[in-house]
Amino acid sequence: MQSTPHIMKTIAGLWKTVRYYKHDSDFFLLVDFLVDICGYYPPKWNPFALFAWRILKVGQLIQYTFYGYHCYLSAAKWRNILYFSLNINLFVGLSVGLFRGLALAYYHDDLVRLKHFMNSRNCGKDDAKANYSRKLHFWANNRLVLIGSTILVLNAIHWCLTTAFTEDLFQIPFSLEFLPSSVANVIIYYYSFQMLIQNLGYWQSFFQFGLMLSLLKNELLILSDYFESVYDRAFQVCCDNDLELKYEDSSTASKMWVAIRTDFIRAAAYHSDYIDHINLLKKVTYISFLVLLSATAIFVTLNSFLCVIDFSSDALGLLVFGSICGMECFFICRFLDELDEINQDLGMKAYAMDWMTSITVPRRNMEDYRIVKRTALIVQAQAQQGFGFRAGGMFDMNLEMFMQIMKMCYSLITFLMQTQESE
User: Fold this and answer.
1) Which of these, 264, 377, 389, lies nearest to 339 by C-alpha position?
2) Would you tell me how many other CB atoms lie within 10 Å of the CB of residue 237?
3) Which of 15, 152, 341, 381 has the greatest number of C-beta atoms within 10 Å?
4) Residues 30, 150: contact at Cβ < 8 Å?
């Protein structure tokens, strides 16, 4: 009983950590905890966590083997369209979860670099407005992760206690009668609840990339605002009156240009560093986004067709799952489109600076003026290139591509229905 207060204190401390923002708060604390449980990269922060991870991975390997056997039986002996669809969903879902999990494990070090970049808060680190925006995003993102993971866990537990015991597809493919009943029950429940880890493992990629894209969007907005406020910061430091900037030999104007040049170069360096990390994220998501597009097309087409030709509660459940996969693809594409739009706007703000005509350029500051103009052109050129996320190097990741996939799914469903009617 002495350990109970310690456990409660630990839970309370964890709640404060994820609820209240500090200047050194870790944006990825909750997501990393989920990944440590269900991911494919061994956790190294605690020996017990590593031991538990190994036990879970052994269970997943056994479960994958048994599910593969069930899928083989489904292909070898036709039962009905619903059973076939369940097998396809299971096979594709597990394959997608496995590929995405292995991709996250393979790029673990690159993901750590990306998270360190977002946790560093380099741009506007001491700016009250920027930190307030980060504070809002910190709790909003943690709240979404908590709600999403809770729904996933409750849904998976309900599934483990119901469907897993009624559908032979999800059961151990041989009898355990040779074992004592208590031991057999433990194995059956352990096997069933492995699907809880499989479920979290499937969605860990969305939690990771969704959170990253949300934070990158906020950091880009902060950077855009930083470019826009270069003049205001220099004015607050160097000047008390606009009239002082009108005189050609004004020492105040000279100080302003030195301050603007320094601050503008710093902002351009932030933008360049941001683009470097975006390129790193493009490498990390190269395969994951291709798997996401493929899975979306398969789940939406197959489950919608099944619901049309053989409507039932099971078919409706599969349709809901396909819709959720489609929503994941939609939100990822929308985030990427928004990143491009904000970056384009940043390029315009960096170059179209109306305040440059309101400040006299003393002769001794002509070089500062040229440096600012040249840097602004470089920033604008970088922004106009766009980020260009691609799935497997073949498909652009944007809302236009998402709509093309939905149209393709509709065409396939129509074709399958016509084929069904002709038969």
Assistant:
1) 389
2) 11
3) 152
4) no
Q: Which tokens in the block code for residue 366?
A: 């002509």
Q: Which residues, in sequence order, are CB contacts of 281 under 8 Å at separation 6+? A: 114, 212, 216
Q: State the Cα–Cα distance between residues 54 and 64, nearest whole angstrom.
A: 15
Task: Indicate the burial class of 208 (C-beta count within 10 angstroms; 0-12, 13-18, 19 or more).
Answer: buried
When pLDDT is averaged across residues 91-115 and rounded to a whole number, the result is: 87
CA-closest candidate to residue 257, choices 363, 365, 371: 365
Q: Taking 90 as the threshold, does the pLDDT of residue 116 lie above it?
A: yes
Categorize the per-residue pLDDT at 338 as very low, low, confident or very high, splitting at 50, 70 and 90.
very high
pLDDT in tens, 25-56: 889 888 888 888 788 888 877 788 888 888 88
Instruction: List 390's β-bridge partners, or say none.
Output: 396
- The DSSP call for residue 168 is G
**Does the predicted model carry a pTM greater than 0.85?**
yes
Write out pLDDT tens, residues 161-177: 777 777 777 777 777 77
Angle in degrees, 0-180, between the axes of helices 251-284 and 313-351, rounded to the nearest 10: 150
Q: What is the pLDDT of residue 358?
A: 63
pLDDT, residue 1, reads 45
Please tell me the distance from the alpha carbon of residue 64 to that of residue 93, in angstroms, as a whole number. 11
- CA terminus-to-terminus distance, the chain: 68
Q: Is the separation of the CB atoms in 392 and 286 below 8 Å?
A: yes
Burial code (b: 16+ CB inside 10 Å, e: under 16) for 349-359 equals bbbebeeeeeb
What would the two tokens of residue 388 be? 């260009």
* C-alpha span between 54 and 51 (Å, rounded): 5
The tokens of 283 are what? 């490498």
The Cα 248–Cα 205 span in angstroms is 58
Quick: pLDDT tens for 396-420: 888 999 999 999 988 988 887 887 7
